[in-house]
């Protein structure tokens, strides 16, 4: 089947796109988008990959599900469009960056600026029905995104994986820690952050230190 994704990823994942589970997933997603309101918009389903070609991946941040409110999701985990109020998890991410690196809290919640620097902002499930969290889970997206993580783990070196919360930690189980860096903490959601499991993790400065030690430029968070 023809998947509209950056050529670097198309080449690396071509076998995945030909598997029966992906055919079934594509058929399900097509039907959902034809009959219901779904997010992100169809052309942005693979935005995380389009903004961060395989060769340029330096950092991977794992999310779970796209936002399911109007005009929020733009295909990058934790990210929202310009002018959209910042969801609570994103607020806590920006607060931690401010404390960790002294960077002022930004107006825009659009994280395309990170993706364009080599941060793959990967949700485990790439689509969702409006106002129905988790509605596209267990349809095949998780199998696909596991394959993406394995592909990065197998074919690259020195990538920094940021795994926030139990779900992301489980999803990162297959990462080869002998050649990649894995930083874990609680999730930035208020539930976790207010229990002291998020703030103070200093993941953003730690990530840049690891990249710079490898001779790679850090991320302008």
Summary tags:
221 residues; alpha/beta; four-stranded parallel β-sheet; two-stranded antiparallel sheet; 9 helices; globular
* Overall average pLDDT: 97
The number of helical runs is 9
N to C succession of SSEs: HHEHEHHEEHEHEHH
Structural class: alpha/beta
Range of strand content = 5-15%
Report the helical percentage.
25-40%
Taking the alpha carbons of the first and last residues, their distance comes to 36 Å
Walkthrough of the structure:
This protein has 221 residues and is of the alpha/beta class. It has helices at 7-17, 20-35, 47-50, 88-101, 112-115, 141-155, 166-171, 190-193, 203-213; strands spanning 38-39, 59-63, 119-123, 128-129, 160-164, 181-185. It has a four-stranded parallel β-sheet. The longest helix has 16 residues, at 20-35. It starts with 6 loop residues before the first helix and ends in an 8-residue tail after the last helix. 36% of the residues are buried. The model has no long low-confidence stretch (mean pLDDT 97). Its main location: cytoplasm. Keywords: Cytoplasm, DNA damage, DNA repair, Glycosidase, Hydrolase. Belongs to the uracil-DNA glycosylase (UDG) superfamily. UNG family.
Summarize this entry quickly.
The chain contains nine helices and six strands. It has helices spanning 7-17, 20-35, 47-50, 88-101, 112-115, 141-155, 166-171, 190-193, 203-213, and strands at residues 38-39, 59-63, 119-123, 128-129, 160-164, 181-185. It is globular and about 45 Å long.
């Amino acid at each position: 089947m023809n998947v509209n994704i950056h050529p670097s990823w198309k080449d690396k994942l071509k076998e995945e796109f030909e598997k029966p589970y992906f055919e079934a997933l594509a058929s399900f997603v097509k039907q959902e988008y034809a009959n219901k309101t779904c997010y992100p918009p169809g052309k942005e389903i693979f935005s995380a990959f389009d903004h961060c070609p395989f060769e340029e991946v330096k950092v991977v941040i794992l999310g779970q599900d796209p936002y399911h409110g109007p005009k929020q999701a733009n295909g990058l985990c934790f990210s929202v469009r310009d002018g959209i109020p910042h969801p609570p998890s994103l607020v806590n991410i920006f607060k931690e960056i401010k404390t960790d690196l002294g960077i002022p809290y930004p107006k825009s919640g659009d994280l395309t600026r990170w993706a364009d620097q080599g941060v793959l902002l990967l949700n485990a499930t790439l689509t969702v029905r409006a106002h129905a969290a988790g509605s596209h889970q267990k349809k095949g997206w998780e199998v696909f995104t596991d394959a993406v993580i394995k592909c990065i783990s197998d074919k690259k070196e020195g990538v920094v994986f940021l795994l926030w919360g139990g779900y992301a930690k489980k999803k990162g189980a297959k990462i080869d820690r002998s050649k990649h860096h894995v930083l874990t903490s609680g999730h930035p959601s208020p539930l976790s952050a207010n229990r002291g499991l998020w703030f103070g993790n200093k993941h953003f400065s730690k990530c840049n230190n690891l990249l710079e030690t490898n001779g790679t430029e850090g991320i302008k968070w």
